[in-house]
Amino acid sequence: MSFLDNCGSIVLDAILTDVGRKRMAQGTFKVSKFALGDDEVDYSLYNKEASDSVARGNLILSQSCFEAFSNDSAVINYGLTNFVSNHVFYMPEMKLNYSGSQTTGQPEEREGFTRPYEGAFYLSANDETSLKLKEDLSSDNYFLKSGNSLSNKIVIESGINSDEAEASATESNRKDLILDNGLLDSYMIVYVDSRLFISVMSQPRGSKFETRANGAFLYNLGPLQGNTPVTLPRIIDSHDSYLISAADNKVMHNTTTNDLHFSAIKGARGTVAAIGLTMENRLCGTSTTNSDPKYAEFGKTSEVLFSGANKYDYIDTTVYAIGASSNAQISIPVRIVRYAGT
Amino acid sequence: MAGTKNNTFIQPDSFSGSSDQLLNDIGIAWIIDENGDVTFEDPITLFSKPEDWLLDTNETAASTKALKYVELQPCFQSTGSNNSLIPVYTIPGRFYGFASGSGGSVVDDQHWKAYLMGGTYAEESFSGIYSEAERRTLGFDYVTPYTQEENILVDNTSNLAKVGSSNVYHLAEMSDYEGRQTELMLPSVELCKLGSSSLDSVPDVYNFVSLDGAIEDLNDLANETKSIDPPSGSSGYGEYLVTGSKTEFSSSTSTAASLQKNLCYTEPENWLQKKSITECQAPYYIKIEFEAALQGSEDTDLRGIFGGSSFKADLLNMLRIAFVDSPTAGSTTFSKRTEYISDTDVFPNSNGSANLKSLDLMEALRSYYNNSPSSTNLYFVDSEDGYTNDNNKLQISPSDSMRFIKASQTMSVISKLSGFIDTNEHTLPIADTSDGKDAFYSWLINRGEPNYSETVAFRIEKKKAGNVIQNIWMFNDAKEGALTYYDSQIKYGDEYEYSIYAYTVSAGIKYRMKDLVIGKNISDLGEDGHCLQFYNPYSGENADQLFSRLDTTSSDHGALNTIESTFADNSQAVIDHPFVADFNLEYTPEVQVYEVPLFTNTASVIDNPAPGLDVIPFQKVDNSQTIGFLTRVESFEPSSVFPSIITESDAKYQEKYFTNRSITASTPLEDDSISPTTTLEIYKTLNKPTTLTDLSENLYKTITLDNTTHVFYDQVNTNKKYYYVFRLLNERGFAGPPSPVIEAEIVSDGGYKFATFEDLSEEDIAEKSPLTPSKSFKKLLQVVPAQQQLTMNAPDVDFTAPAKDALDKIKVGSLDDSVFDKTFKLRLTSKKTGKKIDVNLTFNLDRGA
């Protein structure tokens, strides 16, 4: 991968994939679809203080572009997207539901909804590590357990995260702004590092995440079930794709309770998914076994992470989730943690 | 240059070769030349005055040289009553024969009589120039609009008539509405925009529009229809429709359907020419649009009369009665010449005939005055001078106390029309024109010129399954611009035929000859002329001459009678010409209303195809042999054309859609599907299709969608290729563009399973036409015919006969296309040098034994 020298007059730089070359040779080459992206553009260079619109964008325009590359995941990770409807006024977002993810105390602390610790979701490699983490963090809610379908999960919501009245969490707004615009993420694609994880678990069919007419919150997102990776295009090398179903998110605004106590989305809500992660078995050994070399290769070993004397091996990785309909994305920082002794 | 489609309506007997032998002989007629072009021939233009021919010994226009001149005598014109509204005039006329001795062809009295009345003379047959058949000068030009298809071809936009449907938004309640109501009880955008002041004249119509009172202020509703944004079911016009869908109309309100069978607009510019934004309001509608001033700047005399007498509404009603409800209109056959005037010569000019409904206007007015039928199928949207209420009431109750209005208006029109006839140049009595004795020729020439014509009204006829369900009548208020009617009283998917008619009034003369008397030579007076005895050719008895009189004293009154005998009477005359015949010409001005069809087209509201979809195939990375397809609805692409078809119902939909939108397969679709996408169809086959229609019998799954994204899983066998095609259907069942044919296979390579997917376009799956076959070889090449070319074929051989007799009956080869006695060209190309050499190869069949 390299950059183009944009001092010339290149308007379009294109190369053909293998399939493209084959079709060109057959004389049947025809562009039927295309994708656009601007991953390499740093929009923070936009100069709002400049006198005219040309000057404001000069720095951006002078940036170099990626040269054409046949691997679609190499140059466009955050591509432009198009929508079925021409009336999209609010774009869905993906938000993580944990205590304080919106503002302090919102949503409320809820058992099983994992909270990040210092910006990362801790994933415990084994029961021994889980006990040590509970000691160090003074709570069960700060970490996930690898391959455990009954314990904590990461809860991801998709919806319109706007506090404008026109986008409030009503049934009609859900229909008008999300369903009718084809933005309901009833599927999410989760990407995890295939060197570290062997499965992504998700909530079962029939899961509930809703408020009743009296404002009561009803949720049931477990037990988690394992998923098989699929061969959908990967956005990053060495990552597996998992196609998971999402449940309807029917937490509605009501007058008796504050719906923001239940949901991380401020406006009309679409779907919700709960995921758990299963690590490679080799990474799950107890402190009595040797640390897997991957800890050293991708992370650090025998580090004191908290105020106590416990030492941990850990690897920092990122889990990505993309809404299959809205293309809304979220990056979830995950720290794989293995107790390594004292 | 703006294109026009000019039609000339010609009296059929105005053509050369018609039944009018007099016209044929004189030669003032329309002719069709060998190229099919129609032109009017007027040999009279060679002469300043035809009557001069009498003085010229050699000239005549008649091709047979038997007729020298036809003369009329304005001095003796008479009429039954000058007070008659439409006078019938009688004027004497005279045929002058062209004697053989003077350069003509008439030999004697018998010859002259045969020429006049038909018959045989000296083995020569004559059809007779004298005929008592009724003739008319009426004929007119009319500009008709281009159809949209024609307009596309000629690339201009003038005089365009369009009937097209639009499906603006989806409102589920309309299905219930349509199921319960007839068309005319469905909500009408055009009525809704009238407001209360125009609707309160007839309670039933008011109640119908107000949904039996559910809508309190119709003016608010009228304002709603001017809103720009498409309404939803919870507000504006959409809310009105939802309310209406639940309304059970009272029995009296139901009569509104009958009243709407004929909607009349006397001032359509107020309602149908305004740029009001009604298009967004109905979920779907059919729009009928045409240019009102088709003819350009027509005369407005008659419309002035109708308007000046507050008769516009009555005119529409009169036309309705005569042409539609109780048809008293007759029929007139015209020859029709159509010329396409445009920058491109796409359409050839055409000649044909047209049968137009016609109505004697004065007679129709008289009948309208005398009869006042009660009408319950008519609704005046408006009337001039504030008579809307009264006009509507009078239709239902003709004996209402306000009936004097109608009588007064009708009489006023009759009176003014009489004045129009007396002064219009096309209907003037001969005695009042400068044509004088040449008037007969002037009439013949008039047949080549368009008469007075004026379009007074238009009608949009709406038919369903061949039955007329509604007429929209519009007075032609001479305003330039398009008249646009939005018909929202339609049912989704049903086909409606709309015909637009113009009612044009043409004024001219109707005439016929009668009372023929022929002059018979009884004495040749030399230089003093010829003494003729007039007689009735039917009875043989002597008869008075008509053109001149015994007591004539002025040469202006015809040839002077110079017979000085007390026994002479008006049946004898001394005339310079040996062959003459007199007749009376009876004529009357005529004002006819013709119904001219302008345009017919069918339309139905039909949704656009469903959107396309993006299909991403994948495999579950396990041992389950499961492949999956992530399908996502795609956004509408304006450059997309009509989707490829798979099933027969697709083909029917395509045909209907193309007709409805007046588009072709290469025309980009204008809009996305209006109804929501509801269904995913999956076709699957093991055999590679060569066309998409091959898949019509391979529908594998039909999945009801609740979202725009769907995942479909399928378990398959390993090492087998499967072909999948996906497509979406909207709620109306119309399919969108199919996905590419996805060739999917799970390859089991020693137990390791992986999936391969390939997208195949329609071009990829199409059977390739055979290419020139080529073979590689090194040194030797042998070419032999295929086995089927070499088999012995002996179906006609009699094996009991000697072999030598059978030799010729044995055929070599069982294929129809034999290689023998044909030459083939083989091209040898060197792989190393690329050099080529061509070899001609002929297979010869040697029958030598």
Task: Write a concise synopsis of the structure shown.
The complex is a heterodimer of chains A (342) and B (849). With 342 residues, chain A is an alpha+beta fold. Helix content of chain A is 14%, strand content 27%.
Outline the structure in words.
The complex is a heterodimer of chains A (342) and B (849). Chain A is of the alpha+beta class and 342 residues long. Chain A contains 6 helices and 15 strands. Chain A is globular and about 60 Å long. The mean pLDDT of chain A is 89. Helix content of chain B is 19%, strand content 31%. Chain B has 20 helices and 35 strands. Chain B has a 16-stranded mixed β-sheet that branches. The two termini of chain B are 78 Å apart. The interface between A and B is medium-sized, with 27 and 26 residues.
Descriptive labels:
heterodimer; A: 342 residues; alpha+beta; six-stranded antiparallel β-sheet; 6 helices; 15 strands; 14% helix; B: alpha+beta; 16-stranded mixed β-sheet; five-stranded antiparallel β-sheet; 20 helices
- The chain-level mean pLDDT of chain B equals 84
What's the order of the H and E elements of chain A? HHHEEHEEHEEEEEEEEHEEE
Largest sheet of chain B: 16 strands, mixed
* First-last Cα distance of chain A: 44 Å
Relative helix content of chain A: 10-25%
Set down the secondary structure blueprint.
The complex is a heterodimer of chains A (342) and B (849).
Chain A: H1 18-26, H2 53-61, H3 72-75, E1 93-96, E2 121-124, H4 127-137, E3 143-145, E4 154-159, H5 171-179, E5 187-193, E6 197-202, E7 208-211, E8 217-220, E9 225-226, E10 239-245, E11 247-248, E12 269-279, H6 293-298, E13 300-304, E14 311-323, E15 329-341
Parallel strand pairs in A: 2-3, 2-15
Antiparallel strand pairs in A: 1-4, 4-12, 5-10, 5-14, 6-9, 6-12, 7-8, 11-12, 13-14, 14-15
Chain B: E1 4-10, H1 21-26, E2 29-32, E3 38-41, E4 67-72, E5 78-79, E6 89-97, H2 109-117, E7 119-121, E8 124-126, E9 135-136, E10 140-144, H3 148-154, E11 162-167, H4 173-180, H5 189-192, H6 196-199, H7 203-209, H8 218-224, H9 236-245, H10 256-259, E12 262-265, H11 268-271, E13 284-291, H12 301-308, H13 312-325, E14 330-341, E15 350-360, H14 361-370, E16 379-380, H15 388-396, H16 403-423, H17 439-446, E17 452-464, E18 467-475, E19 482-487, E20 495-524, E21 530-535, E22 572-575, E23 580-604, E24 613-619, E25 626-633, H18 648-661, E26 677-685, E27 699-704, E28 709-715, E29 721-730, E30 741-749, E31 752-760, H19 762-765, E32 792-793, H20 803-806, E33 811-812, E34 823-829, E35 836-842
Helix pairs in contact in B: 4-9, 12-16, 14-16
